[in-house]
């Protein structure tokens, strides 16, 4: 029988094998794209994040969690599906006050927790990788009134692709540290389709920003959406 490892687990295992995790200084800026310095930073979550409760869905190595806890004094929980990633995040940033890392599926975590959050966000994380109708309903239930959801996803028109014309996920790839690729399913909506799905769960889209590096990218590479709980 063919045994399959989750691409996200394989990615974390390869990364840890090549670069063991050690304590890091939190980055000075929150990043929503793969180009440092491009587009907005943490201000789209709230102008004042001090003491706010934030949740990242798919935090990976935890750079943004650490930034928000250290530079904005927010209380931030990062969830990641892969225990190895959580171990890596804790090795990097476990010493940062206000930063907590937990292993689990974003949807299961939201279904189980009794907490509410001032903002929930995802940076190429669980939003786009989990059925939106299920994930947005769970997110909406755990946001305070007027709470913010912000997420960045690979742009649906990157590299000559086209946004989905229906609600189903499409095949995409995770690129491993050694440049091999493993297939995943991804929901690839344009801003209009995201807005429709958000509105079904009481979330109102407030902005859709296309990010493209002016010199390096011939196409927009990232779509950054913000929404507010009604
Ligand atoms: C492309 S990485 C982004 C990591 C991080 N947000 C960053 O910007 O560095 C995607 C992460 O989402 C995690 N992930 C994938 N599906 C998930 C799910 N259903 N629930 C929680 N995390 C998930 C993966 O394990 C991986 O660490």
TrEMBL record:
Residues 55-147 form the Methyltransferase domain. The keyword Nucleotide-binding does not apply. Signal peptide: none annotated. InterPro entries: Methyltransf_25 (IPR041698), SAM-dependent_MTases_sf (IPR029063). It holds the Pfam family Methyltransf_25. The keyword Methyltransferase applies. Keywords: Methyltransferase, S-adenosyl-L-methionine, Transferase. PANTHER family: METHYLTRANSFERASE, UBIQUINONE BIOSYNTHESIS O-METHYLTRANSFERASE, MITOCHONDRIAL. This is Methyltransferase domain-containing protein. The lineage of its organism: Bacteria, Bacillati, Actinomycetota, Actinomycetes, Kitasatosporales.
